[in-house]
Every structure is written in C-alpha cells, then in structure tokens.
Amino acid sequence: MTTESRNLKVVTDVVCPFCGTLCDDIKVIMDGNRIVDTLNACVIGNEKFKSAQAGHRILAPMEREDNSAEFAPVSYDYAIERAAQILANARRPLMYGWSSTSCEAQAVGNELAEVCGAVTDNTASVCHGPSVMAIQTVGAPCCTLGEVKNRADLIIYWGCNPVHAHPRHMSRYTTYPRGFFTERGFKDRTMVVVDPRPTDTAKQADIHVQVEQGKDYELLDALRTVIRGEDIPDVVGGVKKEDIKALGDLCKSRKFGVLFFGMGVTQSIGKHRNIDIAISFVADMNKYTKFTLVAMRGHYNVTGSGQVMSWQSGFPFSMDFSRGYPRYNPGETAANDILQRQECDAALVIASDPGAHFPVSSMKYYAQIPTICIDPHETPTTGISKIVIPSTIVGVEEEGNAYRMDNVPIRCRKVCDAPEGILSDKEILERILARVKEIKAEKKGQ
C-alpha cells in the first residue's frame, strides 16, 4: 500500500441523495475530508457525491445588481438581510423547489412561506403533481419497494425509463434481485414496458407494448375492459386487440403485480386522469390477484416535500398563503403558472433549478424581479438570480431526513465536512425566517 493510500477510509451504509430510489447501501471512499470514489452507487449517484469537491461549487454569497451580469461577493449576514427584506416587503412572493433538501429544511421553508403570505410550490407541479391529484381523488393501492423485491413476479414500467432516470431501481428492487418469494431473481419475474419508444429499459423487457403517443388513457381503459371479459376494438392506442388481451391475461395470472409509472403518463395528454384510470385498473386487478402501483419520483426528496407540506398545511404542492390561510389550486397556484402570468413580485428558489426546465418566458420574468437562489452549485437559475446563497449538500455534507418514492422515511447521513463557512439550507432559512418576523413586527408596530 502506498503512502497516499494509508489515510483512506470507507464510510458504509450511506444514502445516495440523488433520485427517489434513495439507495442506502452506498460505500464512500474518503481520503481525509475528500471523497475519492464510491462503491455500489450508479454513475449519477457517484457524480453527486463527487460534486462536493467540484469546481462549480459556490463558496460565498453573491449579489448581482439590476441590469448587471456580474456578481459581487457579499457576507452571509448581508445576503440573509437582503433576502429577508425582499421577502418581507413583497406583496406576493413565490417560493419554489424544496425537492433536493431535507425534511427539516422544508419544514422551516413552509413556515417562512406562511409568514410571508407566499405561494410555495415544489417540483411535483412539473413532474408527479398529477399523480398526487389522482391519489387525492381516488386513493391508491401502494406498497414498499421491499415488498416488490420479495414478492412481485410481474413488473410493469409504464411511461418511464429507469435505466437512465433511476439506474439502480431494477437491480435493487424489481427485475434482478433475489427476494424471499422470488428466489431465482429475474427468472421468477416477467417485466413489461409500456412506452411509445424502444428505450433502453424496453430493450431489457420480456414484453414491450409500444403504445401510441398520448394514448395511455385509452390503452388502460381497454385493459380494464378485457380483464372483465368484454370486447374492445381491433386496435386501441396503436396496440392490437390480441396483444391487449394477452397482457390482461398475464396480469391476472400472476401472484403479485406492480405498476411503476413515470412522467410519460403524468405529463402527457390526460395528466391526472391517466393516473385516475391507472389506479382504477390496479383496483380492478385486485379482484383477481395482488396488484399495486408506485410513482417513479425523480428528486430524492420530492416525496418528502409533499409529506411535510401536507403535515403542516394540508396540501402537498402549489400552496398559496396570500389570503392568510393555505389554498390549493394546481394550474392557478403552481410556480410556472404564477411566473407565466407575472403575478409574483419576488421569488426564492431552493434545491431545484427551474432555469434548466421552465419555459424561457417564465425565466425571463424571474430575471426581472428581486430573486434569491439557495444552491450549493452554479446553475442556470443562480446565473439570473439577484441574491445567491451557497448551502451544504444534504446527504453528503449534512444529515437529514428524506422520503423514498414509496413514502418510506430514510435518514441521510453526513459523509464529509462542507467547505469552511458554508451554512446548511435549514440554518439559512431559519435566519431568514427570524429576520422576516422582526421586519413584519416592526412594520406592524409603526
């Protein structure tokens, strides 16, 4: 062993803070306080850990004057004071993100939104918001990923591509692992992929059902019809009648089936109605066998954000406190809708990057108003914000709770120390909240 390797140590049982799978078997190889490599992590998860020492880390708060492309470094005290003044004096501030930080930070953020009379929204509004709306309407027969691993002999991936979006999902929980009742792993399971495209996940499937784009609702309705023994047209959603019947018979013949669905269903034509009928299909299947469904959530704690918002205020996303009480109306009170209609006069973005995903028109308006961005790294959103406050990375430099895509809470541990002087999301929000309360009290006393 060389001199350079004698200081190496391995931190075990680490939770990967990247996607909703929240893999909890990661091993991180450390050289002092530096992350050298990881074991068991996927390519994306490995990069998430290594990003702690990446060159695009923000190491000091920054401020950008109006009409200027240049940032000037400022102190944390100054940045927090400016952020508090912006939020306290705004008539209708928008707070967006929350999906890549801890539940503890989310709880403080929700209180801040209430005190400011803000609209607060998480990334579900442009991702799995329709899933949440459908579950609120009709409920959902769910299960944990552990049950899937140990029991499921039929896996359906509908409108998602886990090979790229959740790289270890299939190897840890669905297709390949050996479970208590699935001792032979993939030999005991059948995998079906329903997708308009021959994705890399579809290429590994036993059956690829190539549904026509935007026809998921029609295909699910046809499936419900055939499992009841009723007739359907010769072709539905680009899929032949005999293939639909064969899929229905396959579902009925298995002991435990699971339908995993992604943004190909939630963000296509039909949106939450697609999930309504998917839930109804699963409910129908339970007359014949055990069947459940699980949403393929993206950000590692977007599920936790919905949970925390619901605990505190009753609604999981797109929540409006501007009337002094929480109001919920997706389509009106979602972040992108607020920006499109230019209704907010200030904004705070944390633990997300709308600049990389929202329409250009939304971000053009965002760049015109007073804005605060809390993020460990340089992103398209930090580049057009007025105040940028760097934070630690939860699950790497800070511990905290997160919820896996199946609503199981998991404690993320700290692996290394953050760069000197960098505060956590929770501490930054707590300091902003305390100062906003002081400003509000001062204004009320005048």
From TrEMBL:
Annotated InterPro entries: Formylmethanofuran_DH_bsu, Mopterin_OxRdtase, Prok_molybdopt-oxidoreductase
Coiled-coil intervals, chain numbering: none
A biological process term (GO) from this entry: respiratory electron transport chain
Gene Ontology CC annotation, any one: membrane
MF terms (GO), sorted A to Z: formylmethanofuran dehydrogenase activity; NADH dehydrogenase activity
Pfam family, one: Molybdopterin
Top-level lineage group: Archaea
Signal sequence extent: none
Pathway: One-carbon metabolism; methanogenesis from CO(2); 5,10-methenyl-5,6,7,8-tetrahydromethanopterin from CO(2): step 1/3
EC number(s) given by UniProt: 1.2.7.12
Keyword Oxidoreductase: yes
Start and end residues of each Molybdopterin oxidoreductase domain: 57-227
UniProtKB keywords: Methanogenesis, Oxidoreductase, Selenocysteine
Broad enzyme group: oxidoreductase
Catalytic activity reported: N-formylmethanofuran + 2 oxidized [2Fe-2S]-[ferredoxin] + H2O = methanofuran + 2 reduced [2Fe-2S]-[ferredoxin] + CO2 + H(+)
Function: Catalyzes the reversible oxidation of CO(2) and methanofuran (MFR) to N-formylmethanofuran (CHO-MFR). This enzyme is oxygen-labile.
Similarity comment: Belongs to the FwdB family.
Protein's UniProt name: formylmethanofuran dehydrogenase subunit B
Gene: fwdB-2
